[in-house]
Amino acid sequence: MPSNTGISLVSPLPLEFRAAIIQEEEFQRAMGDNLILLRALMVWDEEGTLRSEEEDRSLVAQLQIKMDLLLTLMSAGIRGLEPLPALHPCQLSPECLLFSMPVAWLPQVENPCGAIYLHPKVTLPLLLPAIRLVPVAVQGPSRQWRLDFRLSSVVQEILSRLIFRYHRRQIARSRENANTSP
Fold this sequence. Notes:
Elements: E1 9-18, H1 24-46, H2 59-79, E2 87-92, E3 96-102, E4 113-116, E5 126-139, E6 142-149, H3 153-180
Antiparallel strand pairs: 1-2, 1-4, 2-3, 3-6, 4-5, 5-6
């Protein structure tokens, strides 16, 4: 699945599609939820590691981010817990999402909002309001799609940093595996 989209997160991830986000108020609310999620994932990933990017972040700020995530997850839980969607091969960059679906799959609405779950323990999805969704290629029983999405500048910046962090970890793991192979 890797293609020429720069640094990206390549992994099978739970993915589903929702109704298009059209109203500006809906967009701002989605970006607020995305901001809470991404900040929490950045802090969550920091634990147990040396802080190089955000050394000056106070423990109180980290606690606030975790509390925001907790309250958001609790409100989602009150609305009803559902199982995570099925895993699909994904390649997420800060500007687009490449993913594979069965050939018969077609979006139910024009320019749907992608909902991708980045962490197995966090049942809050990253919402990706579509600008454009187009089929790219057919590969056996699957069709590859490209979702170009719109994010607020702050959310896009944090997503870029998170993807870069995940990308560095994938490279480190591949080096470790290469060094341990006979």
